């Protein structure tokens, strides 16, 4: 980061619209963030665990971090500030289930301008498109299993009454043969959408390498999936 870039970031006002993350002897801010509570700090939970800082949404509606600017409160010159997108498929279920099915794909960006790229920009990258296409057949089976397992948790009559459309779709899909699963459309049939489960920031200062996980998940995980646990 150049001296001019530092001066530009430190002169930014309205830091109350930025999420503050405390590091050793300095603070990192990400913003501007939209707050559903008019208080950014109440929209996120920050956990310091071992050598990693985890940032979780307190609410499913909490703002995402893509497209946001990173600001430091001291003249910090981070080396190789990197944002890594962990690519996943997102399934909402009947009422925003907050489920993510991770792929084996991650995308790294060096943040020379101290701005996290938008996911829509990443989706336009030709290499990314090719990787998704290569993984899609294997991922479709995992997504199908997740879809069926999710609806299996509901008592038949309860699902039929509360969500008749979901009930009908589930019954049409629950006993498909392998060859028919391959014909399904992930979005149209399985209501599952390409996205990311987290953005991992990596920055090295004069003392150490810092890892910050900006999760798309809430701190209180959906009860129907037990994979979403900090380890």
Radius of gyration: 20 Å
Structural class: alpha+beta
The fraction of residues in strands falls at 25-35%
Q: Give, in spatial order, the strands making up the sheet with the most strands.
A: 3-4-9-8-6-7
What about the largest sheet? 6 strands, mixed
Question: Level of helix content?
Answer: 25-40%
Low-confidence stretches: 1-10, 222-231
Q: How many structurally independent domains?
A: 1
- Tell me the number of strands: 9
Number of separate helices: 6
Return the average pLDDT rounded to an integer.
85
Q: What's the helix-strand series?
A: HEEEEEEEHHHHHEE
Intertermini distance: 33 Å
The best one-word shape is: globular
What would you note in describing this structure?
α4 crosses α5 (164-173). The protein is built from six helices and nine strands. It has one domain (13-218). β3 (44-49) and β4 (52-57) form a beta hairpin. It has helices spanning 3-10, 119-123, 126-152, 156-162, 164-173, 178-181; strands at 18-23, 26-31, 44-49, 52-57, 69-72, 79-91, 99-110, 192-204, 209-218. It has 231 residues and is of the alpha+beta class. The radius of gyration is 20 Å and the shape is globular. The two termini are 33 Å apart. The strands form two sheets. Strands 3-4-9-8-6-7 form a six-stranded mixed beta sheet.
């Amino acid at each position: 980061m150049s001296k001019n870039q530092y001066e530009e970031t430190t002169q930014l006002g309205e830091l109350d619209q930025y999420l503050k993350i405390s590091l050793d002897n300095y603070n990192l801010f990400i913003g501007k963030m939209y707050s559903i509570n008019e208080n950014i700090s109440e929209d996120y939970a920050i956990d310091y665990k071992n050598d990693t800082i985890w940032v979780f949404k307190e609410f499913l509606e909490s703002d995402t971090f893509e497209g946001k600017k990173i600001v430091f409160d001291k003249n910090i010159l981070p080396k190789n500030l990197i944002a890594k997108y962990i690519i996943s498929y997102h399934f909402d279920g009947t009422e925003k289930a907050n489920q993510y099915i991770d792929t084996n794909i991650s995308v790294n960006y060096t943040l020379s301008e101290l701005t996290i790229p938008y996911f829509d920009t990443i989706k336009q990258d030709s290499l990314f498109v090719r990787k998704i296409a290569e993984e899609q057949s294997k991922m479709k089976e995992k997504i199908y299993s997740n879809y069926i397992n999710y609806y299996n948790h509901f008592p038949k009559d309860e699902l039929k009454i509360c969500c008749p459309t979901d009930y009908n779709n589930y019954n049409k899909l629950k006993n498909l043969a392998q060859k028919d699963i391959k014909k399904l459309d992930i979005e149209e049939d399985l209501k599952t959408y390409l996205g990311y489960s987290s953005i991992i920031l990596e920055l090295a200062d004069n003392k150490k390498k810092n890892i910050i996980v900006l999760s798309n998940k809430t701190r209180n995980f959906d009860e129907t999936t037990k994979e979403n646990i900090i380890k």
